[in-house]
Structure formats: structure tokens, C-alpha cells
Amino acid sequence: MKSKYLLIFIVALAIAISGCSCPATPESNNSSNTSQNQTTGVGGTDEGDFIIGVASVDTVQALVMESFPVQVSVEATGYLPDGCTEIGNVTTKKDGNKFYVEISTVRPRDALCTQALVPFTKSVPLDVYGLEKGVYTVDVNGQTTSFELSVDNILSDTN
């Protein structure tokens, strides 16, 4: 009689454990200076077994490294809507004196997830080599910041 209850307990435990796993997400492909547009809006799009969206960004900060040529990265902080959503592709493009950075998200379609906000910080390098001195603006998912290059950011040939 005890073995019957033990067998029922083991089967119930196996069923419960098998229902708790989330499907694996595709590896994020962090690329700069591309114009791929996998995202059409904040609500997300259908990509088969995954939902692609745009990360909610609260603050952005431009970090200018003290080197020559100057290197600049932008640090974005925000939150993901649940425990299964992850940062996806990061795309960067430049138009005049403005950089546009899009941080997308990816989430398994049918996953059962914790419904708590998950904070994130993402650092994105900007391609600033060869830029003339001046003030540049960076837009990351609608949040903006700016930085200034005090000199042309190109190595001069002194031969």
C-alpha cells in the first residue's frame, strides 16, 4: 500500500517539475551600426516561438573615455517586464550629429514567468572615430543624452 502512494507521489512530482521549465531563448546578437529592424513597436512582434519588443529605458548616460582617439559609450538603465524577457539585438545608426540606439527584447511566447520588473543596465559603444569636434546627441529607445568632442577625433599623420 505504501509503494502505491510512493509511486503516485513520484509521478505527480515528475509532472509538476516538467511544467516549470521555460523554453530556451535564442542567443542575443549584439551588433553595432546595422539597420536591421526586427521590432515594430513597444508591444512586440511575433517571431515564431518568441515575442520581440523594445526595452523600457529610464535613463541614459554618455561616457567619454579619456583617450585619444576618444572612445564613447552610452549606458542605458531600465527594466524588463518579467523574469523571462531578456535583452535581444542592439542596433546603432548615426544621422548627422545624432546617434540612434535601439535595445530590443526577446521573450518565449508561452513561458510562465514571474510578473516582477527586472532592472537592467546595458553599455553600448558608439563609433566616434573620425568625427569632427562638436556636440552629439544619443537617443536610446526614446531617452536622450548628449556628449561633446572638444577636438576632431582622428589621428593626424605627423610624418
Estimate what percentage of residues fall within beta strands.
over 45%
Mean pLDDT figure: 82
Oligomeric composition of the shown chains: single chain
Distance between the termini: 93 Å
| Radius of gyration (Å) | 22 Å
The structural domain count equals 1
Number of helices: 1
SS elements, strand count: 9
Task: Using brief descriptors, characterize the structure shown.
159 residues; mainly beta; 3-stranded antiparallel beta sheet
Walkthrough of the structure:
The chain has 159 residues and is mainly beta. The chain has one domain (25-149). The chain has 1 helix and 9 strands. The strands form 2 sheets. Strands 1, 2, 5, 6, 8 and 9 form a 6-stranded mixed sheet that branches. Strands 3-4-7 form a 3-stranded antiparallel sheet, with no helix packed on it. β8 (134-140) and β9 form a beta hairpin. It starts with a helix and ends in a 10-residue tail after the last strand. The model is unreliable at 20-42 (pLDDT under 50).
Write a brief structural summary.
The protein has 159 residues and is mainly beta. The chain has one helix at residues 2-18; strands spanning 45-47, 50-54, 56-65, 71-80, 86-95, 98-108, 118-126, 134-140, 143-149. It is elongated.
